[in-house]
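Re: zinc ion structure - here you go.
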Amino acid sequence: MPKNSVLPLLNDTQSTDSTSDEIYERIYLAILEHRLTPGTKLAEERLASIFKASRARVREALSKLAYEQIVEVFPKRGWFVAKPSVEQARDVFEARRLIEPAVMRRLANSMTEEKRAALKEHLNKEMNARKVEDKRAIIRLSGEFHNLAAALAGNSSFTRSLRELSTLTCLVILLYNAPIVASCRADEHERIVVALNQGDGETAAKIMLEHLDHIEGSLDLDSTEEEADLEEIFLR
Ligand SMILES: [Zn+2]
């Protein structure tokens, strides 16, 4: 099987038929954990057999992912894990820079014991994943920290947007981050939580912006040519 061609990765023993939501979640998670890489073909028929579901159901899940820009569909060629361009990558960070400070302020102003506990529990999970060097879990949990903060902030539009944006960030990191997967720095999540616990939305927002700068800064967005330089290739 060609390396980039699909999905033995999704094929844990699946005993019952999957709903389209379950298929959606499994693919979403595989992308979040970097098991499915940008540009991977998602063949309907194979997915249908993997998930023991009809092709219509698979299509339903893929359509939802396509709506969120996580999957792309091409006439006659089928479905592929999205491959965000450099421009899209920059757009993702621009959008996150607008939304996430607002999430921080909103969350800092509405902290409760439950929210503190939820954030603490998440940080512990991240710490444990790092301790045992579970790379998949580290990547997934890093992204989920941001989704959790948005969910706790309690604005459903923020939550929905951020879920999309953090998955796209995952794809962007995979595409443009040279050899090392620099996901979120753990200490920055911790510092954000400290500020949130103090009800200090401004500091949390400031650290969040620095944090996003660090993630974007770890990407190699400048040296990647969008299109092959044909003159360079043929005329020199
Ligand atoms: Zn982060």
